[in-house]
RNA sequence: GGUGAGGUGGCAGAGCGGCUAUGCGUUCGCCUGCAAAGCGAAUCUAUAGGGGUUCGAAUCCCUUCCUCACCUCCA
């Protein structure tokens, strides 16, 4: 498959011959995760599912940044330890992202548990004269790394004149960034240069090199991490190992809110907890995959509502399939649906193989749904057609990480009994009684589908915004 | 100011030299005891403006205008 690489500004073939090693920059655990985090993580989760579906081995690592000034500030504010803050938000993370149906990464390394690795890295960087000790900490000397700026396409002289760089007289060059910051308050660690805390960028270098080695396949994150985070990671890692760091840099576009950047200061962030309660996992996932991953996506209520409509069609399709009868299929229908199923499946995979175009892929998915619903609408959906469509539909659902609401066996029995009862009333033209039963069924989250010859039902996911 | 990505029908969103996806929306139908869900038909022939290149451009080149992001922490 091809993936657009930010560094070479071109699509590159992903090497899947052995295994695919992916390092995704995770969250800093100082506050609730929001829809922006969710998008990036859902994109990578879906990528991982897609690769694994094809039998490709994926080693997927996603870190937690659990040492950071923002965590410490929050801890001070709440008068608890930094560890209490990070533990809380890590716990929340797993609850929320499990709900989003995000598969657990192979590993979630924490910065605090890899300080020794970082110190080792810094040591080598000092030995190789890429880093130096100042009175405030250890700094990476950007001028020693001529390729600095190659990822973010920035020129070092322009960066200096930009004058937005950190002011610190103890640095040799304003562009130099901290590998280690001296500190006397907790949390702090001992180092050969004095007690303190690691810089942000060094943690990802240390953990990715430790678990994935140099020259791994994909390094990912949000677009906003390109500079300075990923630029600095490259500088450190390449200087340290003399090897290429990552083969492909894959960056996910930002989520905006009604066209505006989402930010704490604007007060327009949407937490994962909030959007889960409002829309549910399926809608959020479909929304996050609705456009190309590299482009920005706008969180607008109308768009999300549209997604509900589409999801209802998928639910309908699924239940029509599994509840289809054993009548004889029309051979022409069989031929036609087989054609469409194979065609949409091919489109689905081709789209994902082409720079992970989920927009096109979901389009193919919905076309298969539509074709199935067409057959169902004209009473021509029978079990032999299910045999063709359902396996493909389930593959797509699985790759997209979507989950149809199911019902327990005893509930099915109850539903069927109620349907029989309603049919009896309907035959007797006791429509009020029939409608009362329909209401009872609907209260169970079940919607009846009245076909000419039979009555089917579907379980509808309860979506918060619909009350 | 620098860098990058873009500007496509009412909206979302593909296509990236010829065959003008797809979805949502809207309207009217079908189905139904009535609904719901679903389906059908109609609607919409779009490619920021101006120049080029070409037999032919949304797609390539130049130019103008506009939008967004990053350039400080950020997924």
Outline the structure in words:
The chain is of the alpha/beta class. The chain folds into 3 domains: 2-288, HUPs (Rossmann fold); 300-400, Four Helix Bundle (Hemerythrin (Met), subunit A); 409-466, no CATH class. 49% of the residues lie in helices and 15% in strands. The chain has 15 helices and 15 strands. The chain has helices at residues 35-53, 69-78, 82-99, 115-127, 156-162, 200-212, 226-241, 272-279, 281-288, 301-322, 331-353, 358-377, 383-400, 409-427, 431-443; strands at 2-5, 10-13, 19-24, 57-62, 131-133, 137-140, 177-182, 196-198, 216-222, 246-252, 255-257, 260-261, 297-299, 446-450, 455-459. A 4-stranded parallel beta sheet has the order 4-3-9-10, sandwiched between helices. A 4-stranded antiparallel beta sheet has the order 5-6-7-8. The longest helix has 23 residues, at 331-353. The relative contact order is 0.11. The mean pLDDT is 92.
CATH architecture annotation name of the largest domain: 3-Layer(aba) Sandwich
CATH-defined topology of the largest domain: Rossmann fold
Specify the CATH class of the largest domain.
Alpha Beta
Q: How many beta-strand segments?
A: 15
Oligomerization? single chain
Radius of gyration: 27 Å
Task: Count the domains.
Answer: 3
Estimated helix fraction: 40-55%
Compact summary:
With 467 residues, the chain is an alpha/beta fold. The protein has helices at residues 35-53, 69-78, 82-99, 115-127, 156-162, 200-212, 226-241, 272-279, 281-288, 301-322, 331-353, 358-377, 383-400, 409-427, 431-443, and strands at residues 2-5, 10-13, 19-24, 57-62, 131-133, 137-140, 177-182, 196-198, 216-222, 246-252, 255-257, 260-261, 297-299, 446-450, 455-459.
